[in-house]
Design a protein that fits this description.
The protein is an alpha+beta fold. 41% of the residues lie in helices and 16% in strands. The protein contains 16 helices and 12 strands. The strands form 2 sheets. It has a 6-stranded mixed sheet with strand order 1-2-6-3-5-4, sandwiched between helices. Strands 9-10-8-11-7-12 form a 6-stranded mixed sheet, with helices on both faces. The longest helix has 18 residues.
Length: 485
């Protein structure tokens, strides 16, 4: 990779680049849990008729206060649902208060809003047969609602208050704090989540993208911090609405104008971020833990999502390990050698900073070094040769066909369109991604691999019981032992 570092000023509307250990671990565990039935034919031997799908394009409007709204009518059921996406990611957390963005989002709904006590809010929504929920992930915060069409006029003001006027009831702040602390403690009992967290902290060391909440940072968050974070980053200019369901679009637009029209707050400029180093030090890290299986992770920062190199590397990574049981890693390490009950690779999406590429395997402790060597061998082979023409053709066909099932509902399409705007992506980013896939050559895929990683400069993390390893990790380079909480 180039040694040019990502600069610290944040582009308005971009999201966090490196997803949390919890999210990546969920992807890995989902892949591990699935196994091909023995009587299924190989995918390359299967054929299907082409599918043509033209998704509905939602209507874009801007309220008088600058709030962007995407609307789509869907009269199939007498329901209305909506989501407000807010540019308030974890990248904005102060270093000594990591976890503040998620803490804030979780309390929007649970801490009462608009002068309604938490129990009062619960009772009102239950009476209306409606739901209002709030959450946050690495890229965005969101506040959503779902209501019967007949009750939408009563639910919209509640949705607005949860988003715009949360009360952060003091007693609920402490309840949420204990939940956050318990979640942090549970990571210590989840080897995959723990390993991914520690790996990510090394590939983004010194940057908020590599930070994770600890007991100390959660204990350091006050109710005043929650209110200040909300005041700073929740505003019409940093929010996009997606509303779908059984309504007339013109009438719904008028409703939204009435409900949100007095929200004229201005967001503060995003914080100045440190420079992101895309070339972390190549090193072997050992997270000692008394477990029977080892978690192996090898990788590096990659590139921002949906540019040309991202498209090419997506296809190569599908061949390497993201393609499931047809991938090289699965075939070599699990099918042929029987050394791992799960193995594969992941490429995460990055918008502000690079995404991360990692290859992984879970294996028994006494096969740790042997499995790690196989992981590295396959990474070297992909770097040296790239995917073959047949492998690339199958990968592209699979990825293009999968795209047809990304957003098959009106709500999913509208919500994705809203997120795309807030993340600062071009409206046709995905169509261009598919066009580049269809024209991709093996040479372009191989070049993308070589731009992402050098086999000699990878971060290696092993979580397991060193006393049970088949060979010492020093055989792979200098080892740094890390304490895991």
């Amino acid at each position: 990779m180039s040694s040019n570092a990502w600069q610290g000023r944040r582009v308005r509307g971009a999201g966090r680049g490196l997803v949390t250990g919890t999210v990546v671990a969920a992807w890995i565990l989902a892949a591990a849990a699935w196994a091909q039935p023995a009587d299924w034919p190989h995918p390359s031997a299967m054929s299907f008729d082409p599918v043509d799908f033209e998704p509905l394009e939602p209507r874009r409007e801007v309220l008088d206060n600058g709030l962007v709204v995407y609307l789509a009518e869907d009269p199939e059921l007498p329901l209305v649902q909506g989501t407000a996406y807010v540019d308030a990611p974890a990248l904005f957390d102060p270093p000594d208060k990591t976890g503040l963005s998620a803490f804030t989002a979780n309390l929007l709904r649970e801490g009462g809003a608009g002068g309604r006590a938490p129990d009062e809010l619960n009772e009102e929504l239950e009476f209306l047969g409606a739901q209002v929920e709030a959450s946050a992930d690495d890229a965005l915060a969101s506040v959503s609602f779902s209501a019967l069409q007949d009750n939408v006029d009563e639910v919209l003001p509640i949705w607005r208050d949860v988003l715009v006027a949360p009360d952060f009831a003091p007693e609920r702040v402490e309840v949420q704090r204990q939940r956050q602390l318990e979640s942090i403690r549970r990571v210590a009992d989840q080897p995959v989540q723990l390993a991914v967290r520690e790996f990510q902290a090394r590939v983004a060391e010194g940057h908020p993208a590599g930070a994770y909440p600890t007991e100390a940072t959660i204990q350091n968050i006050t109710r005043e911090d929650l209110r200040a974070f909300h005041q700073a980053y929740y505003a019409p200019s940093s929010t996009v609405l997606a509303v779908t369901g059984d309504f007339d679009a013109d009438q719904m637009l008028a409703r939204l104008e009435r409900v949100f029209g007095d929200w004229t707050h201005q967001a503060e400029p995003p914080p100045e971020l440190p420079t992101f180093d895309p070339d972390p030090e190549a090193k072997v890290y050992l997270a000692q833990k008394d477990v029977q299986q080892s978690v192996l992770i090898v990788g590096t920062p990659a590139m921002p999502a949906y540019d040309a190199p991202y498209t090419a590397f997506t296809a190569a990574n599908h061949v390497l390990g993201a393609g499931g049981f047809t991938s090289r890693l699965f075939q070599e390490i699990r099918s042929r050698r029987g050394l791992a009950y799960a193995t594969g690779s992941v490429l995460t999406q990055g918008f502000e900073v690079p995404g991360v590429f990692l290859a992984y395997a879970f294996t028994r402790a006494d096969a740790t070094a042997q499995t790690l060597q196989l992981l590295l061998d396959e990474l070297r082979r992909m770097h040296r040769e790239g995917p073959s023409p047949d492998e690339l053709a199958r990968s592209v066909e699979t990825l293009v066909n999968q795209s047809l099932f990304r957003d098959t509902s009106v709500a999913a399409r509208t919500e994705r369109t809203a997120r795309v705007e807030l993340l600062g992506l071009p409206a046709d980013y995905f169509e261009r991604h598919l066009d580049r896939l269809r024209s991709l050559t093996p040479e372009e895929a191989r070049e993308a691999v070589r731009n992402v990683y050098d086999p000699k400069d990878l971060v290696i993390l092993v979580l397991g019981d060193e006393q049970s390893f088949d060979l010492p990790l020093d055989d792979f380079g200098p080892v740094e032992r890390i304490e895991v909480e």
